[in-house]
Amino acid sequence: MIRKTILNPKRVRKIESSFAFIEHRFISDGFLKRLGHHELILYLFLVLVSDRNGISYYSYEKICAMLHLHLDQYLDARDALIQKDLVAFDGGLFQVLSLPPVGSSR
Q1: Total structural domains within the chain
Q2: What 3-state class would DSSP assign to 13?
Q3: Is residue 10, in this structure, part of any structural domain at all?
Q4: What 3-state class would DSSP assign to 35?
């Protein structure tokens, strides 16, 4: 077993005002490897900017500017995340969803 030790005690992460997380299942159940590059950066962005319920309301213009995506790249990534049941979108608001069961599809 690997023994874990703190490498830099002055820089240990702390949960402060807001906190974003991605379940370990995102890796262990294969979600990470099923996402393309643009899907992954959009998903990570939405996780980082969403509130405790997974809700965020950044406009596509702001998202594209911040992530250096063209509109078609954003639209493809957004639609793929919806299809893969990772996010919901109502035309104005995103919700990062709890991870679906492995093998489920819409």
Answers
A1: 1
A2: coil
A3: no
A4: coil
pLDDT at 12: 83
34: which residues sit within 8 A by CB, 6+ positions away? Answer: 84
Helix (H, G, I), strand (E, B) or coil at 5: coil
Distance CA 56, CA 47 (A): 9
Amino acid identity of residue 76, one-letter, is D
- pTM (two decimals): 0.86
Query: Containing domain of residue 89, as a range?
Result: 24-96
Please report which confidence band the pLDDT of residue 15 belongs to, taking 50, 70 and 90 as the band edges: confident
CA 42-50-103 angle, 5° bins: 60
What CATH number corresponds to the domain at position 72?
Answer: 1.10.10.10
> Is the distance from CB of 89 to CB of 82 less than 8 angstroms?
yes
Q: Is the pLDDT of residue 16 over 90?
A: no
